[in-house]
Amino acid sequence: MAEQHFASALKLVHQTKPTQPGAEAHCLHKLGDVYIQRGKRTEDGGDFTKAAALYNAAMARSEAGGFRDMLAQALKQTEQFFLRHVGGVACEIDQYDVDMGHKNEMRETRGKVTERLETIDQRYNPYTHDQNDPEVRNLETARATAVMELFQEITHDRQTFVDRLISECIGRIGPPPCRYAFIGLGSQATELVTPFSDLEFAILLEEEADSEHNKQYFRNLTHYLHLKIINLVETILPAMGIKSLNDFYSGDRKSS
């Protein structure tokens, strides 16, 4: 009932002109609180990821000040509640600040990739020659090779980045119960990933180790990794599929 009331308030505020980001932020904050309480009862990691997404959406609509500081504290507590109620780990952590460090790392990586692309564009620019000039073919070939090498570097760097996030998660919730492998999918697998690409992966378990207990561990690990990805502040809220805001399964286009 609380979720429906806050969701209705959010939709009402969102429809007003001019927009009221501050009022939206307060509604999103309250919805996040609802999902925190739900997660404590269900012990479902997905409820905590939704709470984190709602708090981050509220943060994006807030200016510096006490309310924003409160949201930052709520995000720190979200991870603590996740570890306590899903991972069975009681600890006091300041992980949100660590996540912001990851965000800064991504920003720096994107800046370096932008510089590399500009260098490639300047060094191998076929448009500085007449289209019938034989040098054009050489420049195009060199340009394609340089771009391919850059793609490979981005793929390797992002694999290292995600591996570090996974290691941080495992360091908190404990070692895996069996051997496993994270398999990159999509652009990560084809080595065509960009610094802005989404993350798709699968987890393979060793043969005859797919017990419910083992699979639950990796579900929790996936939710924890998702929580870290959300705290990079690049996950749009509709992607979370929060039914009271975006019900993708209702058949009603307006609600999705």
TrEMBL record:
Residues 144-226 form the Protein-PII uridylyltransferase N-terminal domain. InterPro entries: GlnD_Uridyltrans_N, TPR-like_helical_dom_sf. GO terms for molecular function: [protein-PII] uridylyltransferase activity. This is Uncharacterized protein LOC109480187.
